[in-house]
Amino acid sequence: MSEQDIFTERVSGVIGDRIAGAVLLVLAVFAWWYSYTFTTGFMQPVGPGVFPRLVSVPLGAFSLYLILRPGLNQRWPHRAALLRQAGALLLLGVYAAFLKPWGFLPASLIALILLIRLFGADWKPSLVSGVILTLGLYLLFEFALGMPLPDIPGLNW
Asked: What's the CA gap between 104 and 60, in Å, rounded?
């Protein structure tokens, strides 16, 4: 590998880190702003907007770090990795769109199975892991944290 190739990889890594940092910063600011649109129940001390705000603070700090101090030895991801990342982002966007109309359980189950498959797992482990993760997240948010999740249409538990 020539010196020019090494320099090109380092420069593309710096640009990649800064692009990722800028995208994550926009996401953190949007999550912080959008979290104020969530309504809280009567006499509920902690509303649903707390979680996005708690996530957006470290996300914003990390994104600023990527912008200000990008890594020098990073390489731009290869095409397969970029397609996998784009697929994950698309899947999460579709999940967000279908969460309310379908309800938490079916939307999360399908999204988790597809996300696990996207990163190379076979169908059987994807199904088992998806079911366990979906039920675990449902129990955590609904009962342990007391945060209401969208129900399956027609079912009001």
From this structure: 27
Query: Distance between the two ends of the chain, CA-based, in angstroms?
Result: 62
Contact 148, 142 (CB under 8 A): yes
Q: Which amino acid is at 67?
A: I
Spell out the residues 6+ positions from residue 104 whose beta carbon is closer than 8 angstroms to its own. Answer: 138, 141, 149, 150, 151
Q: What is the pLDDT of residues 46-85, one digit of tens each?
A: 667 777 888 899 999 999 998 898 876 566 677 888 899 8
Spell 49-79 as b/e; 16+ CB within 10 A means b. Answer: bebbbeebeebbeebeebbeebeeebebeee
pTM of the prediction?
0.64
User: Counting beta carbons within 10 angstroms of the beta carbon of residue 107, is it exposed (0 to 12), middle (13 to 18) or buried (19 or more)?
Assistant: buried
